[in-house]
Amino acid sequence: MDEQPPRDAGRLAAASEAVLADLERLERLVRNRPELLAHLHSRNAILADDDHGRDRGLVVQADELRWSELAELARLAGARVDQDGHAAAGGWHQNCPACQAAAAIARIRAHTATERGGATD
User: Which end of the chain has fewer CB atoms within 10 angstroms, the N or the C?
Assistant: First the structure.
């Protein structure tokens, strides 16, 4: 069986490219100061990871969006979205904002339930 690439392969590739782009120059600048080199590499990798996520329409850590905020948004939106009629088995409608909202609400609720040890709303 062929081995599947890691789920984060794209993120890792983007981070590697960012680090490699400046590797030689940075090593010359911070000779004998590995902690500075590590800091600079880490910064480049984090920025590349955020850019990679944003390019794909994802919320990234630098956006400073909290799960508690998403949970509250899901709670409020959940009261307005017919979750049985949208995104349920046999109820998915192509390009339907209500289906997309119901699916997002379910993902947020599943994550926040896991964070609370399995409790659900």
Answer: N
- Model pTM above 0.90: no
Terminal alpha carbon distance of the chain: 41
Residues 23-34: tens digit of each pLDDT: 777 777 777 787
CA distance 77 to 37: 45
Q: Tell me how crowded residue 49 is: count the other CB atoms within 10 A of its CB.
A: 20
What would the DSSP string read from start to end of 4-65? PPPTTHHHHHHHHHHHHHHHHHHHHHTTT-HHHHHHHHHHHHHHHHHHHHHHTT---GGG--
